[in-house]
Amino acid sequence: MSIPEKMEFHMRLLEVIMPLATYINMRIVIAKPGLDGHDRGAKVISRALRDGGHDVIYTGLRKTPEEIVRIVNDEDAEVLGLSTLSGAHDSLIPKICEQLVENRLGSVIVFAGGIIPERDIEALFRSGVRAVFGPGTPTSDVLDFLNKALIRKQNGNPVGVGDDLGWNWND
User: Fold this and answer.
1) Cα 61 to the center of its chain, rounded Å
2) How far, in Å, CA of 3 to CA of 15, rounded?
3) Coil vs helix vs strand at 51
4) 133 in Cβ contact with 163 (< 8 Å)
5) Fold of the CATH domain 25-154
6) Inter-residue contact 148 to 159 (CB < 8 Å)
7) Span 108-125, pLDDT tens digits
8) Are 101 and 71 in contact (CB under 8 A)?
9) Rounded CA separation 47/24 (Å)
10) Tens digit of each residue's pLDDT (9 = 90 or more) over 47-59
11) By Cβ atoms counted within 10 A, which residue in 27, 42, 46, 169 is the most buried?
12) Which pTM was predicted?
């Protein structure tokens, strides 16, 4: 390939990439619902998402569903990441998802991480969670999920907690 051909190729590539770059930065709330007192994973994900170019708000430990929904609303977040190790995921996460929809925050993209048994994941998807990440998941997988969700959102496909429940990252 000649130099002018390479230059034209790179210019066309930039034409495709640049529109996406205007919306890569997302506002993300990372929350620890319930009485769980371990937050190392939430802090690792928060840092990785910041390093990936996102605005991240970490709520700290032991937040109620109501507090989490209020923070998502107050921070005008597009994404909510929920970290749980306590086993209360099956009651707290669906409650948070329900309250997001009730508070007209159905466009918020919700993902979960932590110790969540395989048998419980489908119920979380039905509640509106779009991805579940277990222990040891590379942080790049979370960033890939957010990029895929962003592309779906830009194309008008459902991604929010209150949207049609036909898609999740783990399919």
Assistant:
1) 18
2) 18
3) helix
4) no
5) Rossmann fold (3.40.50)
6) no
7) 999 999 999 999 999 999
8) no
9) 16
10) 999 999 999 999 9
11) 42
12) 0.85
In the DSSP assignment, the letter for residue 87 is S
Distance CA 33, CA 95 (A): 10
SS3 157: coil
- The residue written with tokens 């779009």 in the block is 130
Yes or no: say if 72 and 55 are a contact pair by the CB < 8 Å rule: no
Q: Which helix H or strand E contains 80, and what residues bound it?
A: strand 79-84
CA 1/CA 41 separation, integer angstroms? 46
- Which two structure tokens, joined as six digits, stand for 80? 């909510």
Does residue 128 carry a pLDDT above 80?
Answer: yes
Can you say how many angstroms the Cα of residue 157 is from the centroid of all Cα atoms in its chain? Answer: 16
**Contact (Cβ atoms closer than 8 angstroms) between residue 36 and residue 68:** no
